[in-house]
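Limitations
The structure tokens in this dataset are predictions for the assembled complex, not deposited experimental models. Users should treat interface geometry with appropriate caution, especially where small molecules or nucleic acid strands are included. An illustrative entry is reproduced here so readers can see what is and is not provided.
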Amino acid sequence: MTARPLAFVTRRRVLQLGLGAGALALLGGGGLLWLRGAAPAIHDLKCLSPQQFRTLAAMARTHIPAGGPFAIGADEAELARAFDRYLADEPPGHVRDVKRALHLVEFGPILFDRRLTTFSHLPPADQRQHWLAWGQSDLLLRRQVWWGFAKFFGLVFYDRPEVWPHIGYPGPSLERLPA
Amino acid sequence: MTTLTDCSLTAVPSQIDCDICIVGSGFGGATAARILAVAGRDVVVLEEGGDFTGKSLTQRDAAMYDQLYVQRGGATTQDMGISLLAGRVLGGGGVINACDVVPAEDAIWRMWQKRFGLEEFSPEAMAPFARQALADLGARPIREEQINRNNAILRQGAAALGWRGEVMQHNRADHCKGLGTCLVGCPLDAKQNARITLIPKAIGAGARVLCRARAVRIEAGNSEQKRVQCRSLDRRGYHEQQAFEVRAKIVILAANPLGTVPLLLRSGLGNGHVGRSLSLQPQVPILALFEQPVDAFHGIPQSYAVTQFATCDEARGHGGFRIEGIMGTPGIVGSLVPQAGVAGKELMTQLRNIAASLLLLPDESVGRIALGGAGQAVVRYDLTAEWRQRARQAIRTAARAYFAAGAKTVVLPTVPPKMWTCEADLRQVDALSLAPATLPLLSAHQQGGVRMAASEKDGAADPTGRVFGTRDVYVMDSSGFPTTASSHTMAPILAVAHRQAARLAGRSKN
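Predicted assembly:
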């Protein structure tokens, strides 16, 4: 066993960011939590809470939106569902770290952009800008979070057969071998 | 218990007795299993992964990463700067590698002799083992018609610039059809990996092989009778099920440094060198867009290497860098394209026109494996300033080769990606920090962590592979390598395992 993706999002490291009360609030359940509001009930989640799932789905949708060169996006491919199912078979320590990362992203606009709203409530254009800032950040922790999720989203989304016709992939070659 | 037991499906006895317990079924463990079983030893092999052959290897990136790789393909260094790719499947890394056979050069054996006192590792002494390794692998050069367009582009660019390169030799059988998905296993079983070649021979000689069997800890490692505490795993290999124990006089560890080192540390075995001197050989991915289709997902993924800039001498070992093509299936390319939003999708719509390669940069053994709170391995690795400088040179060089071959854009997967359209753009390379998590670096050739040396003050294992401070606990995988042995570790692992196992086989049973 080695370090798993997002295993670096420890409580100590978040505190080391020097984010003060905001970080404490998001990790400890303080007064800023009301900003994220209640998430609608989502059935059949394996691991995440509705709030965590909402953040994850917003991240996935931002990373791979619907539209553009082809219609299918993260929502249609149910990337957040796939991630929730993946987590259900991960060790408890990794699940905990991923949940911390999701909290951190949800409260990112407050912590890093001084806005009084959370990631899942940002307009899509602002979500895109904010998410890009994670990947480009000078803070290692933010870049780590970005890559941790981005690799999963890219691997799972482009491995979906319904996506292949749009990117020119003919599918597994064994099926195309002459009999 | 039958000779090949899937512990997720079959209840195993609470106690299994044998002469020799081998942890890990890649080329190191399987070589030892075959040699020792043929020599009449009662051998049990433990493999944490499952048994995948034929059409159970589905060519689907996500599902196969999940089942064939350590930590479902998600293992990384602690700072998340480098993805750690290693096999967790019966047959080990050979099931998921690109079949590259690159034997250790004589200079490496001499370096090990001189720097680490491994007197018996002279080129002359290692030659028969290296030959045996090549024979086991069935190594042969790629045929000209097997070079796919992705590799031909690299070759064309290098040739235009007058750079040296070589068509690689592989361990693939004649019935290879160039399916293009070697890194997620071959459904035609054309790869001559340990699962296909050595393990059946070991079983034929009487070895018992257990898959979905996790070795948790070795007890009484200094006693004559060792007890390897094990857990069976569920069908997908995610969760532990039944506890059982393997009792053996000799324990051989061959589970890659990512498995071997934490097992030693959890068992409290070995000296202070265990976990140190880890080499990761970090690799840099680079992409290029062409006007015409490349179809890098089709054909043998790695068949040509630019070797002009690679160096090897007995004073410093491997240096410089190699450039090699790599496979371009959609999941793998998608995980490397660091562009969010519609722009990322637009880039992926050009999948057929994307050429992909890896820059292989040897490193100093600067890494370390420690134990985390849950007994898991924590890999610490800091890129050196020298490595970063060499990586910048390699990036610039690979980009030049692609431009020489007619690329319209060279893509370096930073966030957002660097999109270079002419050589003048390559001035930006000097400004790359290569700080952790700015590029998706990969490691597929982990080595060290239980470094062999003549003296206990210089290493963790003696020249026979015996872990210092233990009685008959050995390493026979790349964990024992004092330095990086080759750009591709398969052939050197086999050669060293041949040597060590033959020596053990020659010992009296008692």
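Some entries come with short summary sentences. For this one: Residues 14-29 of chain A have pLDDT under 50 and may be disordered.
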